[in-house]
Amino acid sequence: MAETTTLTNTETDVFTAPPWNVIVHDDPVNLMAYVTFVLMKIFGYNEKFATTLMLQVHQQGRSVVWTGELEKAEFYTQQLQFHQLKTSLEQSE
Amino acid sequence: MKIAPTIEGGLRIDPETNEDWHILRAIALDANGCETDLADRLGGLVTDGKISEDWQDIVVPDLRESFADDLHYIYAAIEAAAAFQDAGESPIWITREDAFTWYSGLNQARLALEDKYTFGSDPEANPANLIPIRHEALLRNHFYCALQSFILTHAL
């Protein structure tokens, strides 16, 4: 009986969707110390990094405070809105 | 009105005049004084097609309920203290546990005042030129902001 050999060739393509950005927008009401406090509380950022992001919001009008998968981006956006920060999310280019 | 930190890490507010009680009761009134409520204003920032629909259906109602609960809590705390107004001391206590609720209510009031009167980032600018109703709103805004700063420093 002749031997048969089966060759299997598996190719895997991984399509990675562009990540989502969580964006905090500047407003004239929320206190700077409060914005820093909320960023530390929600993301666990240290005070120095949270302050850097807060200043970016204050000086540039907006800051991308987190980037990643959609489900988490929605969760963080919801949490920031519960804390009354003007927050939106958008897909990265 | 006197506001002082407590050794437990909260605040004690002692209203002394009718005007003090008036401005405290104005927190909830100011917070609800905007044509579009805060939940809708925040929810409107999420504009991406399908996500936006879900946001309006699921998140915005939750935000609205949470914000309303905070205002009800503050209203109840103020009225509970006011019930003893004639008996002498009637302090309002802000504990560490309810500090965020108070901060939220004050923030709602300030966000609504800003939306209505557009004080801008420099609310000190020419207060003498403001019409009386706007001037009063600006003063309340200053008071709410000061109380928020106390809460941030001593209770949150």
Secondary structure elements and their pairing?
The complex is a heterodimer of chains A (93) and B (156).
Chain A: E1 20-25, H1 32-43, H2 47-60, E2 62-68, H3 70-82, E3 87-91
Antiparallel strand pairs in A: 1-2, 1-3
Helix pairs in contact in A: 1-2
Chain B: E1 2-5, E2 11-14, H1 18-31, H2 38-43, H3 49-82, E3 92-94, H4 99-117, H5 132-154
Antiparallel strand pairs in B: 1-2, 2-3
Helix pairs in contact in B: 1-3, 1-4, 3-4, 4-5
Descriptors for this entry?
A: 93 residues; alpha+beta; Ribosomal Protein L30, Chain: A; 3 helices; B: 156 residues; 5 helices
Describe this structure in words.
The complex is a heterodimer of chains A (93) and B (156). Chain A has helices at 32-43, 47-60, 70-82; strands spanning 20-25, 62-68, 87-91. Chain A is an alpha+beta fold and 93 residues long. Chain A has a domain at 27-91: Ribosomal Protein L30, Chain: A (2-Layer Sandwich), CATH 3.30.1390.10. In chain A, strands 2-1-3 form a three-stranded antiparallel β-sheet. The model of chain A has no long low-confidence stretch (mean pLDDT 91). The model of chain B has no long low-confidence stretch (mean pLDDT 91). The longest helix of chain B is centred in the middle third of the chain and has 34 residues, at 49-82. In chain B, helix 3 (49-82) crosses helix 4 (99-117) and helix 4 runs antiparallel to helix 5 (132-154). Chain B has one domain (2-154). The chains are: A alpha+beta (93), B mainly alpha (156). The A-B interface holds A 25, 27-31, 33-34, 37, 70, 74, 77-78, 81-82, 84, 86-91 and B 38, 42-43, 45-48, 51, 59, 62-63, 66, 103-104, 107-108, 110-111, 114, 119-121, 123, 145, 148-149, 152, 156.
